[in-house]
Description:
The protein is mainly beta. It has one domain (5-233): SOS response associated peptidase-like (hypothetical protein yedk fold, Alpha-Beta Complex). Helix content is 12%, strand content 35%. It is built from 4 helices and 12 strands, in the order E-H-E-E-E-E-H-E-E-E-E-E-E-H-E-H. Strands 3, 4, 5, 6, 9, 10 and 11 form a 7-stranded mixed beta sheet that branches. A 5-stranded antiparallel beta sheet has the order 2-1-7-8-12, with no helix packed on it.
Amino acid sequence: MCGRFTQKYTWQEAAEFYGLNQTPRNIRPAYNICPTDLVSVVIPDGGSPFVMPMRWGLIPRWWSKSLKELPATFNARVETVAQKPMFRDAFRRTRCIIPASGYYEWQITADGKQPYYISPRNGSVLSFAGLWDEWHDRVNNETIASCTVIVTDANSFTRAIHDRMPVILEREKVGAWLSGEAGTELLKPAPDDALQMWPVSKRVGKPGNTEDAGLIEPLTLQSPTPAQRRLLLH
C-alpha cells in the first residue's frame, strides 16, 4: 500500500532525470500528498516524456456513477492490475510514472501506528509505476485526469514496516514502461539496498499539512522495540 508520499524535487532535477523538454513548471514541495490530491505525473507525449497534474485516485473513462461512489483506486495491486476492470484498460493504453521523493508507511505497535518515511539512499527521484486516464464529469462538464500507483510485495528491508510497497522503476526501465513495450515483468520490489527509512511524527496521519517540511524529519523513539532498534541501526 502507498497512501501518502512526497514530491520535493525541483523542476530541473525532474527535467534532467526524465529528459523533459517542455516549458518549465513551478513545482512546489509537497510533504504529505494524500489520495485525491493533485500530483505531478509523467506521461508519454509523441514519444517524449511530458509532465502534467492529475488527481491521485484513478477514475476509469467508462465510470458512469458519481465520484462519491468511486471505490479507493489510489493503488493498483500488481497481481490483478492487468485483469481488474478498474485498471486493465489503462494498463493496456495509458501508463505513467509518478515521480516521488519518498513515501510513508505505518508500523503497527503496542502504542499505535508509528509512521516511517522511506526514501532513496542516493537522494535521486523515485519513479513509481502508475496508470492514468481521463474521465468526463457530466455533472460539472469537465474532464478530469487521474492516476494510480501500482503496488507489489515489500522487499525484505521494508517488510518490517508493511507487507506492500510501491513499484519503483529503475531509470533505464522508465521508457519501456511508458511505451508499453514491457509488462508486469517490470513490476517487482525495489532492491533492498535502494532505500532508507526512519520514524517520523504522527502528524503525517492528518491531511492538510502538505507544506510542513518537518514531517520527514527523523523522530527519536522513546522506547523502541527490538524490531525498531534493528531498523534504526540498518
